[in-house]
Design brief:
- It is built from seven helices and 24 strands.
- The chain has about 475 residues and is mainly beta.
- The strands form four sheets. Strands 7-8-9-10-19-16-15-12 form an eight-stranded antiparallel sheet, with no helix packed on it.
- Helix 4 (about 90-100) runs antiparallel to helix 5 (about 105-115) and helix 4 (about 90-100) runs parallel beside helix 6 (about 125-130).
- The relative contact order is 0.09.
Length: about 475
């Protein structure tokens, strides 16, 4: 199971929920074998004698537990991609095993204390009774810190902010197809301050309409000709994954559509510290008659600002109340992720781009407690041949004051983002490009595939360069 069902890098071949389901069926064998030695003089079929067996070390088992830890969100739940639920996470039973078998990994003890309380009184008794070290609750553990992470076989980038990595998580998926995957190649989700900003609807289990959350339209990605993505052989390639103090970026592509010569996404977190962060997203696509950049809000109420809307009579997928967004200039959509977290997406249209807003599938509970729930879906559409680039900026801010004040398209496809601190200029290029700062001819251009420069107080504060 460890060597064949899980991927070579120790990540799940399907989804976090099914990784824990699999572990739940095999955990007792490694426990039963701890310290076992075969009889003196005995040799197995390979001519070897096992002495003091420890499957937790020296096998891929250790990588699997480490990856379960690294894949958590700041709320210590798993992101609900593929066939995982919003509430999927590592139960206390698993963390008891992790803390007991990896004393050299203090982060596992820290996780146990956060799940079970600092005195560990709420642990999983059937395992704690037999395997927990006496007095473990008196041992100190460092604060939980979650890393930026992109496993080579999983191909799902985890980009984070906050000193402990728990403030926000931007997830870009270039995973291959598998049994409990969705039709979601290059799906983008964003979680911040304990709430979903760009959400994945997750898993409806064996609900009769489970395809509604698995189809491409349910995800934050691009549809070509209104069709679902391929499943088998869609592939997925990470072109680069780079992190720094202020910028964390991933670029990936796939063959999700047979007729597309280009299907590539570049997504980044720009972080100024203290919760002042935002997402920049470039999606490039070539192929088909129509190309629809689709995403949905995480709340039922969404307002379109900077452009009027009008009711439509023509059909837009299976959505209801479709409205056309009538503008050729920059506009944005806003909604509340919570009482104190406001989400804003800035859309910077390319030539010929049209946009629509409508209500679509929002149910997430297979038990139907949220039956009939809808969410606002945004569709940005281009038509015809050639490379199309969808430019987007996403911010989630606490309080009344937004950090991003304005977004415009600069030279060479660069985005000029005015913030409360100054001006950030962001460039993404398929090959090499040159980022030039508006009105600052004295500053030499920055050449590369992805570059960011921040000007604050009239001075160049920092730069970032990838590839």
């Amino acid at each position: 199971t460890i060597d064949s069902w899980f991927l070579p890098d120790g990540t799940t071949s399907e989804s976090p929920a099914y990784a824990t389901m699999t572990l739940g069926n095999i955990w007792d064998m490694p426990q039963a074998l701890r310290g076992y030695s075969e009889p003196a003089g005995y040799r197995g079929p390979d001519g070897q004698r096992r002495v003091a067996v420890d499957l937790y070390h020296g096998t891929a088992y250790g990588k699997i537990w480490a990856n379960c830890f690294k894949g958590l969100q700041g709320n210590l739940k798993f992101p609900p991609y593929a066939d995982s639920y919003v509430h999927s996470g590592l139960g206390a039973n698993f963390v008891e095993l992790m803390a007991a078998n990896y004393p050299e990994r203090p982060e596992y003890l820290a996780l146990l204390k956060e799940i079970c309380g600092p005195d560990l009184a709420n642990g999983y008794a059937p395992l704690a009774l037999y395997y927990r070290e006496p007095g473990l609750e008196t041992k100190s553990a460092p604060p939980i810190t979650l890393p930026d992470w992109c496993a080579p076989d999983l191909r799902i980038g985890h980009l984070r902010t906050g000193a402990d990595g728990r403030e926000s998580l931007l997830l870009l998926s270039a995973s291959h197809w598998g049994g409990h995957h969705h039709l979601d190649s290059l799906n983008l989700t964003y979680w911040k301050n304990g709430h979903e900003v760009l959400s994945d609807l997750g898993y409806l289990w064996d609900h009769p309409q489970k395809s509604r959350t698995a189809r491409t339209l349910a995800h934050n990605t691009v549809l070509i000709d209104g069709q679902d993505q391929l499943t088998k052989e869609r592939g997925g390639e990470v072109h680069f994954f780079r992190t720094s103090e202020h910028v964390k970026v991933m670029e990936a592509s796939s063959h999700a559509y047979a007729g597309a010569s280009l299907y590539r996404r570049t997504s980044a977190l720009i972080d100024h510290g203290g919760g002042r962060s935002y997402v920049v997203d470039y999606f490039r696509v070539a192929g088909g008659r129509t190309q629809d950049y689709v995403f949905h809000a995480s709340n039922t109420a969404c307002e379109i600002l900077g452009a009027p809307t009008r009711p439509m009579t023509e059909k837009l997928y299976d959505f209801v109340r479709p409205r056309a967004i009538e503008t050729s200039g920059t506009w944005h959509a806003t909604w509340k992720a919570s009482a104190d977290l406001t989400c804003i997406t800035w859309a910077i249209p390319q030539p010929g781009e049209r946009a629509f807003v409508a209500d679509g599938w929002g149910q997430r509970d297979w038990k139907n407690s949220d039956l009939g729930t809808t969410l606002p879906y945004i569709v940005r559409r281009t038509e015809g041949a050639g490379v199309k680039t969808f430019f987007t900026v996403v911010e989630a801010h606490a309080g009344k004051e937004r950090f991003v004040r304005n977004v415009t398209l600069g030279t060479n496809g660069g985005l000029v983002i005015e913030t409360a601190l100054g001006t950030d200029t962001v460039l993404s290029a398929l090959e090499a490009g040159e980022l030039t700062l508006p009105g600052r001819t004295s500053v030499a251009p920055i050449s590369g595939r992805f570059a960011v420069a921040s000007v604050q107080g009239g001075k160049l504060a920092w730069t970032f360069l990838a590839e």
